[in-house]
């Protein structure tokens, strides 16, 4: 028997978990709760011991978590650690695997000659080819321009999103295509990819200055006091 340093229960040594790197040991029940809390926040769990920085190897999670939960959490961790401008998702609906642009290119060039020039990429999970430029299944005998001419209308799902974005007045980042919604603040938007633009018209900001003549802010987006207080501030 061994005492768990978290719950202080006497546990059979076969039910104790040892963390690689530091060899601190805790019962599987306590480790399960500790890891679940961390993974639900999208971060890798560290050893619960005070000031210990050893990470719990994600491959060892299967000792106390269901395999499907491990897969979901592995995806979340990868999403949080992959830069926005490097993220690429497989366009096949039944796959949608997250990859980085660099890793999928390295994976593709071993089986497809001219991948860098053509834009062809091979999904690392489903192994189907797709176009990194158009983000559609690979158009083998067509250039991107030819494909766009022959498919002038976006898929139904994209049409619905674009319609909602228009209604809600959301704005797309021109650099990474990330959808942005202004909740509060001024109209000078700095996307998470670093690109700066005007939320009203989409024009780029250069050297911290707008290239358009749109208003920079609206009182309704920057003042959050009670109505009476807002009026007093405006009057002043």
Strand content: 15-25%
Here the CATH topology of the largest domain equals: Herpes Virus-1
**Number of strand elements:** 14
Which stretches are low in confidence, meaning pLDDT under 50 for 5 or more residues running?
224-236
Radius of gyration, CA atoms, in whole angstroms: 25 Å
Strand order of the largest sheet: 1-2
Q: Summarize model confidence as the mean pLDDT.
A: 83
The secondary-structure class comes to alpha+beta
Number of domains: 3
The description of the largest β-sheet is: 2 strands, antiparallel
What is the level-2 CATH architecture name of the largest domain?
2-Layer Sandwich
Task: Explain what the structure shows.
- The protein has 3 domains: 2-79, Zinc/RING finger domain, C3HC4 (zinc finger) (Herpes Virus-1, 2-Layer Sandwich); 82-150, no CATH class; 169-222, no CATH class.
- Helix content is 31%, strand content 15%.
- It contains 8 helices and 14 strands.
- A two-stranded antiparallel sheet has the order 1-2. Strands 3-4 form a two-stranded antiparallel sheet. It has a two-stranded antiparallel ribbon with strand order 5-6.
- InterPro entries: E3_UB_ligase_RBR, IBR_dom, TRIAD_supradom, Znf_C3HC4_RING-type, Znf_RING, Znf_RING/FYVE/PHD, Znf_RING_CS.
- Belongs to the RBR family. Ariadne subfamily.
Identify the notable features of this structure and list them briefly.
single chain, 236 residues, alpha+beta, Herpes Virus-1, 3 domains, two-stranded antiparallel sheet, 8 helices, 31% helix, 15% strand
